[in-house]
Amino acid sequence: MTLIRKRKKNTLFKVLIYLSAVVLTLYILGPFLWMFISSISPEIELISGSRKWFPSNPTLKRYEALINKVEGARFRTAFFNSLIVATISTILTMFFGTLAAYCYARFKFKGKKSMVLGILFTQMLPGAAIVIPIYLFMSSLNLLDTKVGLILVYTGFIMPVAIWILKNYFISIPQEIEEAAIIDGATTFQILFRIIIPLVTPALFATGLYSFITTWNEFFFALILTGSNSKTIPVAITEFSTQGGVDYGMMCTAGVIGSIIPLVIAIIFKDYLVSGLTAGWAK
Amino acid sequence: MKNLSRKNLITLLLPSFLFIIFVFAVPIFYSIFISLHHYNILLPYHPFVGFKNYIKLFQDSVFWSSLKITLYFVVVAVTIELSLAMLIALLLNQDFKGREFLRVILMVPWAVPWVVNGIMWKWIFNSEFGVLNKLLLQIGIIEKNIKWLGKPFLALNMMIFADVWKETPFIAILLLAGLQAIPIDYYEAAEIEGANSWVKFCRITLPLLKPVTFVALSLRTIWAFKSFDLVYALTQGGPSQGTNLLNFYIYQTTFSHLDFGYGATLSLVLTIIILVITLLFYKFILTEEE
């Protein structure tokens, strides 16, 4: 009797789980799919108030316009700007961040504690509190609306987070390995580059991906510091909705294209990113 | 832990340290300096005005209404996100077919740029051609199109809705990692003692999940206070400034009205608010642990 009841309860539980899984899938994918469907719907179907869920004549016209027509030239420039800025900032951050994270994880030095607190403090600062001086510096150095300027700002901007995540990885490596190397007469730099870095390559990779996605998606600084020469993709996307009349079709298309790189990275390297995120924040 | 020669230490730390100094430390002090001046970028010189900008803030009704809206946004959004994330994490901690697939698609909202999230919902909420009205009309919940972003309070809530979609998965990922770190023996021991699922959840899961929940809560609170992209892409602060979150108000003051002095003042006040709330969080958790 109790067994039957238990089995019934289990079936009910299973149904509930699958039901929630379906609802969750629709909730997560629905909005993005709708943006994609809109991007391939002909203008007439987009604004006809039709009751269909999929266009009867799907079109790739807008993608073509953005990818190889004259009207997409500025969008393409923004795409490549984003690619350059995010890649170089990530490389710089990873290189210098690794050196610093290794120090934080392994050595005692004066002011270490306040530096760690400082790193946490940077995360509380709203962009607005630092953007005005940065804007003024950039303008006096003639770096406004340049990729170099934006790269420098982004490198500093993601550095604290990268150091934080990497530090937690470094701590998890047993010290004995290094101690053996020291006895063999290896220098600090030899230990770092020959022993430690090969051991934490997956961690470096995870942190690098995180930095790349963060800088690719960054909007606030890009909006203020860039113009026609160095505009990045998030800024270019908003221009479809704020300049003049809103072109929803183009806006959706730009949104889909602008999301492709972070989405592909996040899906393919999900395990790396999740381990990086949890190492960074859950500790 | 060992000591490192001074030279090596400087070589290792200095480059990243300089970046952090120039992007965070110098600017924050310079912001304090600017906030004490009448600093309009178009004017040739910027007289010192003492605390005039700070006094102005107390009489600025837009600031107070923006603060109220921001607090509402933060409290409601973070509460919903955390509760929903907890449910999602518990679901994904169960054994069922398709669990891996769900874990992968959880990355989608996290990866999508914030501005894309904004324009995506702007289109979904569109009163004439948006899919939300279309869906609700088809099901028969509403009879005519609703202007989701047309009224201040409704627009604010719709903005929370958009924020929840984007931010919940990240918290769910953190909480799920926390759940998976709980040893299965604990549950088995509790089962032998005859505990039911609810007791197990309250006595084992929740207490052990507290540290990671706390981190997620404080992170999300800090980030929610800093929300900007969503406001910019979705509503531009309107209608009637009903979605004018503080960070957006600061942006407008600074870069549309070009009042750098007052903008810096507002941004410092926001910094202090975030700082105080974070400290309160930590104080609370420390006293709890004692």
Walk me through this protein's architecture:
- The complex is a heterodimer of chains A (283) and B (290).
- Chain A has 14 helices and one strand; from the N terminus they run ααααβαααααααααα.
- Chain A is an all-alpha fold and 283 residues long.
- Chain A folds into two domains: 58 residues; 219 residues, Orthogonal Bundle (MetI-like fold).
- In chain A, helix 4 packs parallel to helix 7 and helix 4 crosses helix 10.
- Chain A starts with a helix and ends with a helix.
- The mean pLDDT of chain A is 89.
- Chain B has one domain: MetI-like (MetI-like fold, Orthogonal Bundle), CATH 1.10.3720.10.
- In chain B, helix 2 packs across helix 13, helix 8 packs across helix 10 and helix 10 runs antiparallel to helix 13.
- In chain B, 40% of the residues are buried.
- Chain B starts with a strand and ends with a helix.
- With 290 residues, chain B is mainly α.
- Chain B contains 13 helices and one strand.
- The chains are: A mainly alpha (283), B mainly alpha (290).
Provide a short characterization of the protein structure.
Chain A is mostly helical and 283 residues long. Chain A has 14 helices and 1 strand. Chain B has 290 residues and is mainly α.
Helix content of chain A: over 70%
Please report the total strand number of chain B as a whole number.
Answer: 1
Radius of gyration of chain B: 24 Å
Structural class by secondary-structure content of chain B: mainly alpha
- Please give the CATH architecture of the largest domain in chain A: Orthogonal Bundle
Strand percentage of chain A? under 5%
Largest interface: A-B, 90 and 96 residues
Beta strand % of chain B: under 5%
The residue ranges of chain B in which pLDDT falls below 50 over 5 or more consecutive positions are none
Query: Would you tell me the overall average pLDDT of chain B?
Result: 91
What is the CATH topology descriptor of the largest domain in chain A?
MetI-like fold
CATH class category of the largest domain in chain A: Mainly Alpha
Q: Label the overall shape of chain B.
A: globular
Number of domains of chain A: 2
Assembly state (oligomeric)? heterodimer
**What is the CATH domain class of chain B?**
Mainly Alpha
Q: Supply the number of helical segments of chain A.
A: 14
- SSE sequence of chain A, one letter per element: HHHHEHHHHHHHHHH
Specify the structural class of chain A: mainly alpha
